[in-house]
Structure of Nuclear transport factor 2 family protein:
Amino acid sequence: MADDPIEEPAFEPSPEDVASVLAWFDDYDELAATAQVERMADLAMFPLNSVTDDAEGNGSASWSDREQYVREMTEIVGDGARMESVRTPHFLSRSLVFVVTDATYTHDGVRHRMRYGDLLIRREGRWYFQTMVQGGWG
């Protein structure tokens, strides 16, 4: 047993690391609320991966370029929905974080709950989202 290699500890984010991720989401949410889709796209690292499943439980994955993302998000954002979110970042390393979001949104007076995840990548000191994971879009 003495010859076993010592495993390095997992990355432990500082409060500043966590705050930077949550601030990124605050900015993204504001852009989404005001339907600034081109600026939302500036926060992505393309090609953007999307992972989901369908009602039968079959998973799927796809990717989109900036043009496709802008086209799809233009149809989705700015429809009067209000969202409240609680986000839990899970740092994989200093520059990779998977964020699980538990959200409630209200649209046309009806409240809906959902859970989704985003993989953010830090490059040159800035966060970008690269993979979106949410059930039910397949």
